[in-house]
Amino acid sequence: MIGDRSLPDDALPYAKTSIFTAETVPSKLTNTHNTKKGIWGRLNVNRGEVSYYLDGEDAPLAAIRAGETLIIQPEEWHFVRLNEDAEFFVEFYK
After folding, report:
1. Is residue 93 a contact partner of residue 72, using CB atoms and an 8 Å limit?
2. pLDDT at 4
């Protein structure tokens, strides 16, 4: 896991996206969006690299590589950028 972000001890998984690539990632994820109140995301990178940006920032908060994860905080406005061979999915917790 990247950084000091972590899920609460009582967080329970409830949903998971499909596996996305640079060709299949929905535009919603590459444009600014957020998670709802009380919802965490866990960005899981299977291959390549996914850069995670906070809204309004020019530099990524983190570059997540194959085998790494990043916890997305509730109500955090963000977007992602992928390198061409990236493959990732997101798990959601509440």
Report:
1. no
2. 65
In angstroms, the CA 78 to CA 45 distance is 17
Q: Dihedral of CA 27/30/31/32: which sign? A: positive
Give the single-character DSSP code of 70.
E
Structure tokens at 50: 């996914």
Dump pLDDT digits (tens) for 24-83: 999 999 999 999 999 999 999 999 999 999 999 999 999 999 999 999 999 999 999 999
**Cross-strand partners of 64:** 50
Tally of CB atoms within 10 A around 33: 15
Classify residue 33 by its DSSP letter: B
